[in-house]
């Protein structure tokens, strides 16, 4: 907890096109949270992200649930945080595998984990089962929330309804 009695908050996010990054920055501002970008050790290229190509990197990762792309850096001290917002774009109806890599690296015991997503058309509920598997130690794992088009007031209201 901070001196103000509000738990310390982190917004961790993966963004391929920039949309999730913009949402994450707005959310971090609304939450008074630290910001951490989940960066792949091997960055995705435009060709890697071509969902219409069954041989693109993202398509191959989608079809193999055991794939865990490496993350380039780590959160300094995850123990410091009470609420962790985890953001990602929706790929094939759920979170990208690199988000699972990130979640599997930490112990979230006693923490609220609040996933949020951006999407061009799919909902976020397909992520819930996979996130539970990747984050079994969470004190409380909330359903993924689509944040497309949410303004600062709506983000602030959501933050206060879920964060410690």
TrEMBL record:
InterPro entries xref list: Flavodoxin/NO_synth, Flavoprotein-like_sf
Domain Flavodoxin-like: 9-164
GO molecular function: FMN binding
Domain of life assignment: Bacteria
Record-given protein name: NAD(P)H-dependent oxidoreductase
Protein source organism: Candidatus Olsenella pullistercoris
